[in-house]
Amino acid sequence: EDQVTQSPEALRLQEGESSSLNCSYTVSGLRGLFWYRQDPGKGPEFLFTLYSAGEEKEKERLKATLTKKESFLHITAPKPEDSATYLCAVSGSNYQLIWGAGTKLIIKP
Amino acid sequence: DTEVTQTPKHLVMGMTNKKSLKCEQHMGHRAMYWYKQKAKKPPELMFVYSYEKLSINESVPSRFSPECPNSSLLNLHLHALQPEDSALYLCASSQAGATTDTQYFGPGTRLTVL
Predict the structure, then answer these.
(1) Splitting chain A (109 residues) into consecutive groups of 10 residues, what average pLDDT does each group show?
(2) Residue B48 burial (CB < 10 Å; 0-12/13-18/19+)?
(3) In the A/B pair of chains, how many CB contacts fall below 8 A?
(4) Which of B60, B97, B91, B66 is nearest to A42 (CA)?
(5) What is the pLDDT of residue B51?
(6) How many C-alpha atoms does A38 have within 13 Å on its Cβ side?
(7) Which of A16, B43, B71, B111 has the largest CB neighbor count within 10 A?
(8) B103 to chain A: which residues are within 8 Å by CB?
(9) Per-residue model confidence (pLDDT) at position B2
(10) d(CA B73, CA B11)
């Protein structure tokens, strides 16, 4: 069965304290892995799409990496405005995105 | 520009009302989606339109009726909703609806059913 698991559920960091969020997946025939950021009451904001193992993408303080079993979202020297829920979703041979439950990231000043 | 717009931002309706949610994109995308999201849960797919034709209906109750007037617009007509239908309703679009396509989401409509 296709499945996506994100860890940890919640992560509290001090401003400037780097860390990583994990997205483990089981899917037949990965077509794409997508990272989104979601603020409370707002729609998910697209961050990255990764297609194959070994691929990496960067944007400001964020870097996403992909292996055959998992993806990491690395956040370097985070700021309070990086606080949000980070969602991971995968696309396989089925038409539908399989979503993780999200990681709630809180950055304290 | 990767913007999807949704109106209204908030909607409160009674169980006997009829209302509509609207979504618009100008990215030239040919696939559009409706999702429902409950608090602290990921989005849940409701409908997919591909090239203005309904291609997927995830067994959504008939009190939700989607409509795609043209490739840029997507509506969701609501009638006789239940309190448990209260949620954030999200519209998204993608280039062609392929499984490799990135979906871009709008800001959502917060719906409250009394």
Answers:
(1) 95 98 94 97 97 96 97 98 98 88 98
(2) buried
(3) 56
(4) B91
(5) 94
(6) 31
(7) B43
(8) 34, 46, 97
(9) 66
(10) 19
